């Protein structure tokens, strides 16, 4: 058995083409909101995501703050 067969014998769950639709993803705008919250409040990634998900209106509030600095950010 070749070395390549030994290395490539274990496939990742995400390697299968049919599972691409199940792979979680975030939009660039959402990533910017989370990054802004992390920097502003000096919190870790998990805490920032939890705050965005659990606090009503926080996402829109941060988008409003970001739209003042960046003209290309629009609510969608």
Please give a structural write-up.
The termini are far apart. This protein has helices spanning 3-7, 28-41, 45-54, 58-69. Helix content is 54%, strand content 0%. The protein has 76 residues and is an all-alpha fold. The protein contains 4 helices and no strands. It has a domain at 25-71.
Q: Helices and strands in order, then pairings?
A:
Blueprint: H1 3-7, H2 28-41, H3 45-54, H4 58-69
Helix pairs in contact: 2-3, 2-4
Please identify the structural class as seen in this structure.
Answer: mainly alpha
Average per-residue pLDDT, rounded, comes to 77
Low-confidence segments, given as residue ranges, are: none
What is the ordering of alpha helices and beta strands?
HHHH
- Note the main sheet: none
Tell me the radius of gyration.
Answer: 19 Å
Figure out the total of helices. Answer: 4
**Alpha carbon gap, first and last residue:** 53 Å
Per DSSP E runs of 2 or more residues, the count of β-strands stands at: 0
What is the helix content? 40-55%
Task: Tell me the overall shape.
Answer: globular
* Beta content: under 5%
């Amino acid at each position: 058995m070749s070395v390549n067969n030994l290395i490539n014998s274990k496939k990742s769950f995400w390697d299968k083409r049919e599972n691409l639709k199940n792979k979680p993803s975030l939009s660039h705008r959402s990533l910017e909101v989370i990054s802004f919250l992390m920097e502003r409040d000096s919190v870790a990634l998990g805490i920032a995501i939890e705050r965005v998900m659990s606090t009503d209106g926080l996402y829109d509030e941060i988008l409003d703050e970001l739209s003042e600095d960046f003209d290309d950010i629009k609510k969608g």
